[in-house]
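User: I'm putting together a small comparison set for a docking exercise, and I want a reference complex before I start. The sequence is below, and the ligand is D-malate. Could you produce the 3D structure with the ligand included, as structure tokens?
Assistant: Of course. I'll restate your input first, then give the structure tokens for the complex.
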Amino acid sequence: MPTIGRLRYLEARANPRARGRGALVLIHAFPLNARMWEGQLSFSERGWRVIAPQLRGFDGDDGRPVVTSMDDYAGEVIDLLDGLHVEDAVIGGLSMGGYVAFAMFRHAPRYFQGVVLADTRPQADTPDGLEARSRMLALLREKGPTAVADEMIPRLLGPSTLSERPDIVDRVRGLILLNGADAIAGGIAALMARADSTDLLTSIHCPTLVVVGEHDAITPPAVGQALHEGIAGSEFAVIPNAGHLANLEQPELFNDVLARFLDHRV
Ligand code: MLT
């Protein structure tokens, strides 16, 4: 994976024979990494330059202190875009990737040609949510990333994926286990400290897609529906038979929704 500034990233260059469509930036969830977007790199065939940043620390230790705030993740993605000479883009994020997109929008809205908010929420953690994160941190310290994977996978994936798609379950486990304990701990700290972004919603005026898996247990469809209602003119789609990792569980359906949005709204 190439590196620019502080970040590694996956990139699929736009097919030169397709109509040039600009950049599509896809930011990964916690505790995964950029490879979770491999099923969306095919948007390059539709003329998009697809860039999936690897938030620092995930999938390998670069020897620097881990990142512990959404603003720092956001700043590093912005530096990456500058390094790649991307002036604006459709910027999407799934779950924590959505929190990073909100932080980018708060600091640098001019980079947004459009936004895709997948399986995410604008609210900060509740007191119960913060307690659950502290328990996960303790579990991580005691038993390591494998225990975090065991705890999270049943909530990250929908029931039919869990029972019928062992290949996807294994893939998600593999992605989680590429991450060191320090990166996961830094991610948990960033999740716990993140700002509430609800007040940003009325200032989002670029084309917006809100998308959520039908059986998402972490950010259920009602959360997506409320997010959609908070952003004037946004589109909303529910991906059938998917849990929280909708793009990975149902790539074709997710890509159909994303393609329709990009073709008709951006
Ligand atoms: C994620 O998928 O990024 C996490 O589930 C986010 C969260 O726990 O809030």
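The longest strand covers residues 48-54. The chain has ten helices and eight strands.
User: Thanks, that's exactly what I needed.
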